[in-house]
Recover the amino acids of this structure.
């Protein structure tokens, strides 16, 4: 019973450190050095506790399963948390053949910043809309586009950093108001 309990402790510690590692990576990519450093400290400290439990009982297969299972579950948990947080910004590129004006109006009325540029597609002229939105609102913007122009071509990319223009709650330089 003690071996199973030890493996369970390792399992939980690994879920924590791997989930924190996922968050640390996300914030590192977004340039948030101080927060990433703090998360890195926590991740390393928890990992040391987990590996200490493993090395204290190297002959226990339960520890191996706890360690590996916690790693797998930590990846799943970390990605789930990251999707739930959905921090940052995204840029949608919307290409519409004949409904760009209607899309521009609807997106603008929905609180999205929109820039429209004329483009040349395979079959002639198209309009390209650039829409910058909080990542949490990305799916909302896509649904709005699809209700107006189900044939629109939409791509989404992360934006790091974003500043200026029409970005609600952000002043020039990317600092929140």
């Amino acid at each position: 019973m003690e071996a199973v309990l030890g493996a369970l402790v390792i399992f939980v510690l690994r879920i924590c450190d791997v989930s924190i590692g996922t968050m640390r990576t996300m914030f590192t990519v977004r340039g948030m050095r101080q927060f990433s450093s703090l998360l890195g400290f926590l991740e390393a400290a928890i990992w040391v506790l987990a590996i200490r439990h493993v090395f204290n009982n190297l002959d226990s297969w339960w520890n191996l399963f706890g360690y590996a299972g916690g790693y797998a579950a930590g990846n799943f948990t970390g990605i789930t948390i990251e999707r739930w947080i959905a921090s940052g910004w995204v840029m949608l590129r919307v290409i519409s053949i004949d409904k760009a004006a209607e899309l521009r109006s609807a997106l603008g009325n929905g609180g999205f910043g929109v820039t429209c540029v004329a483009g040349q597609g395979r079959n002639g002229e198209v309009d390209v809309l650039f829409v910058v939105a909080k990542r949490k609102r990305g799916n909302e913007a896509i649904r709005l586009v699809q209700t107006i122009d189900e044939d629109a071509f939409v791509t989404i990319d992360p934006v790091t950093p974003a500043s200026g223009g029409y970005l609600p709650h952000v002043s020039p330089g990317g600092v929140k108001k």
